[in-house]
Every structure is written in C-alpha cells, then in structure tokens.
Write a structure and sequence with these properties.
By secondary structure, this protein is α/β, with parallel strands linked by helices. It has one domain: 3-Layer(aba) Sandwich (Rossmann fold), CATH 3.40.50. The chain is about 30% helix and about 25% strand. The chain has seven helices and seven strands; from the N terminus they run H-H-E-H-E-H-E-E-H-E-H-H-E-E. The chain has a seven-stranded mixed sheet, with helices on both faces. The longest helix has 13 residues. The N and C termini lie far apart (about 35 Å).
C-alpha cells in the first residue's frame, strides 16, 4: 500500500489542521513552540507540509523545511511565490528525513505528530540522527496529541504513537542530557504534548 498522504490534497490537509485545532491564525502549536525558540535560530522543520508553520517561522529564524510529499511542497512554494520569494531552493527540500544531510541546527522540529509517521522500530534511529545534526546547545521539539486523546489518522495508515511517558526512560540512553514535557490545549479543546530533548 502506498503512503496515504499521497491521496490527501493540500487543501484537505489544511482542513485536517483545523479539525485538530492547529489551523487558526496564529496556530496554537506555533504559539507554544515559539516560547522555546530564540530569534535567529537555525531551524529544521521535518515534514513542513503546506507551510502552515514554515511560512511564519521563516520570518524570524534561519529556516529549512523538508518534506517527502511533493504536492505539499509545491503548495508551500506557491504561497512563497505569491509573496515574491524567489530563492525557495535554499530552504525548501523535497526529501525524506532519512536521506537528508545537515548539521548545526539549533532546533529540529517534528510538528503535528510527524514523529509518528516513522515506524516504531525506527523512531530511536530518527531521534539519534536528529541529535547528531544539532548544534552544541541544540534541541529537538516533538509535538503530538497527549496520551488518552484523539489522534486523527489518515485512512489506511497506522501511526506509531509517541508519548513522553513511554519514552522518558530511553532518552538518556540515546544521549540526551535533558528532556521535558509541556502540555497545551488547542482552541477546540484538544490536549497536546510537546517533548523537548537536548
């Protein structure tokens, strides 16, 4: 079976964001994530999609966005073209995280449950890879629904759910010195957790 996201159009993805409480302006998750960032940071957004966060992050940060779904990147690029941004290849890349090479990121962001799209057996590898791409004081930010709350899952797709409480004993073994969980509630009452690893 192919990737179910290949069958979800960019406009449908935008509607999904609204359904899970992340589509308002500014998005609730962005408000929370920005509390953890410093202006000018070098940021990698894994699974930047249609640019829901990226178009806002690139205003204040040294931003790079990657996504393996070409249709979403094209949608993001069109938004930037309309704003007069001509040098998109500098910061938008059609590539999977597994194949992406980069170093010195102050923050690597896995927004809107992106970490759950990696098979459970690969999630540790993904976190180790991300850790090795960080700057000396860099951090990883993961955003997911909190335990016991709803995951919106595309039809035919099994997510490898990710919860801080299930992982906290593993983080030090992977090589993270510090880790914490923050929770927030979206405007429509969905409770989400942000995991910060450094």
């Amino acid at each position: 079976m192919g990737d179910p996201y290949d069958a979800i159009s960019p406009s449908e993805l935008q509607k999904e964001a609204k359904k899970v409480g992340l589509g308002e302006s500014p998005p609730t998750d962005l408000i929370q994530i920005k509390k953890l960032l410093t202006n000018g940071e070098k940021i990698l957004e894994v699974g930047c999609g249609t640019g829901r966060l990226g178009k806002l992050l690139m205003k204040d940060y040294d931003y790079v966005g990657i996504d393996k779904h070409k249709q979403y990147l094209e949608y993001f690029r069109e938004i930037l073209r309309k704003k007069g941004e001509k040098n998109q290849n500098k910061f938008l890349h059609h590539i999977s995280f597994e194949n992406f090479q980069g170093k010195g990121f102050d923050t690597i962001l896995f927004p809107w449950s992106v970490i759950t799209e990696f098979e459970q057996k690969n999630q540790e590898f993904i976190l180790k890879k991300a850790k090795n791409m960080l700057s000396e004081k860099g951090k990883i930010i993961l955003d997911n629904p909190a335990k016991g709350t709803i995951y919106n899952t595309p039809k035919g797709f099994i997510l490898a759910k990710f919860y801080y409480d299930d992982w906290k004993s593993k983080f030090q073994k992977i090589g993270f010195k510090e880790h914490k969980k923050l929770t927030y509630t979206t405007h429509n009452g969905r409770v989400r957790e942000i995991v910060v690893l450094s």
